[in-house]
Design brief:
SH3 type barrels, six-stranded antiparallel sheet, 2 helices, alpha+beta, 6 strands
Length: about 80
């Protein structure tokens, strides 16, 4: 398994969250959305023209911008 950023997952791929790099409000927001260390996350689909990507985490679909998904490290 190798560590990577959540944003590199292609549609249909999954990874295990190993670290959240944000601090303060953004880290709290991501945790409230279900992005926590040890949780499995899957990439569902991307919006056209580089818009938000939708992920499946903790039984929910959540859309994140590229800069937000770049804060989440995963292992594949």
């Amino acid at each position: 398994m190798s560590d990577a950023l959540l944003s590199i997952l292609k549609d249909g791929q999954k990874g295990l969250i190993t670290k959240i790099n944000g601090v303060g409000e953004i880290k709290s927001r991501l945790a409230a959305l279900g992005f926590r260390k040890g949780c499995m996350v899957g990439a569902l689909y991307s919006a056209p023209m580089g818009g938000p990507r939708t992920y499946f985490v903790c039984g929910c679909q959540v859309s994140l911008r590229q800069n937000e998904s770049d804060l989440i490290q995963i292992s594949q």
